[in-house]
Amino acid sequence: MKEQPKVRAVILGEYIVRQKATVRAAAEWFGVSKSTVHNDVSERLERIQPELYTQVKKILEQNKQERHIRGGLATKRKYALKRKQEEEYREKIRISR
After folding, report:
1. Per-residue DSSP letters for 6-31?
2. Containing H/E element for 48?
């Protein structure tokens, strides 16, 4: 996404509002760094489109408040996958004996 920074800031802001996306998700979707997204939507966007900035800020605040929940869910998925892989491995060994 090699757009002009002002255009990029608006596009990123609109994406975050439309998708209720995190900075990380927006960065991955557009192929830019998290720093670029954060800089664009928290500094540039405020000067370019204050009303869009307000909407983005609200979503980013909500994401910030929910991040501990997402982290816990990610850890839960990680250990569930690990447990499943261990069970499959044990089953494979049991069958091969």
Report:
1. HHHHHHHHHHHHHHT--HHHHHHHHT
2. helix 45-48
Q: Rounded to two decimals, what is the model's pTM?
A: 0.69
Mean pLDDT to the nearest integer, 34-52: 95
Contacts 24+ apart (CB under 8 A), 68-76: none
83: phi then psi, degrees, rounded to nearest 5: -65, -45
What percent of the chain has a predicted confidence (pLDDT) above 70?
Answer: 97
Give 48's contacts (C-beta < 8 A, 6+ positions apart): 6, 9, 10
Rounded Cα distance, 76 and 32, in Å:
28
Contact of 34 with 23, CB cutoff 8 Å: yes
pLDDT, one tens digit per residue, over 5-26 is 999 999 999 999 999 999 999 9
